[in-house]
Model the fold of this input.
Amino acid sequence: MSVSPQLPGIFHALEPVLRNYGYLAVGGLVLLEDFGVPAPGETVLIAAAIYAGAGRLNVVIVALVAFVAAVIGDNIGYLIGRLGGRALALRWGRYVFLTPKRLDGAQEFFTRHGGKVVTIARFIEGLRQANGIIAGISDMPWSTRFLPLNALGAALWVGLWTTVGYTAGSNINSVYHDLVRYELYFGAVVAVVFVAFVTHRVLSRRRNDRGRTPVVDEVAEQG
Done:
């Protein structure tokens, strides 16, 4: 009998839930997250894929359950937005941290980028939870636009995270620790690049200001 892998970091809190409820935990948490409830759907999907890589779950079933739950969850959100509109979404959303500011930001992003947002929304924290609701509020056609684009996004999202988790499998501890270590290096690089960018912008602005000063003085003298 194989031994369950010990999940590190943020995955560890979900270990008892996943061990006791398995596929039901995957389906339930993914479904809840996808219509706005603050549940760790993405995290439990990755954890379940890790278990599958270690031989504790079937990765095909994990992927199918997560896909179906993701599509159903977003469609529940779509119905909430379509039938109740913004007022109902905000009235209901206050219980699950869907604030007016958060909804405004997500709706603005949705409007600016159009239908393709439905496909990529699952990869964006915040928008993943509000995607269906915003599509419903925006009266996006369900059968010709929302449903196929949403299903495509669910397939890509589930495919990515099940592949990542399944590949890590029983080596998750070493993989996780490497990721944490390299995350520090990556953060340092990002900080250096950001400081360099800000410095460059400040220096460029000062040079431009110095270049404009003689012209301004000349115009003032002529006036």
User: Anything to note?
Assistant: The first helix runs from residue 15 to 21.
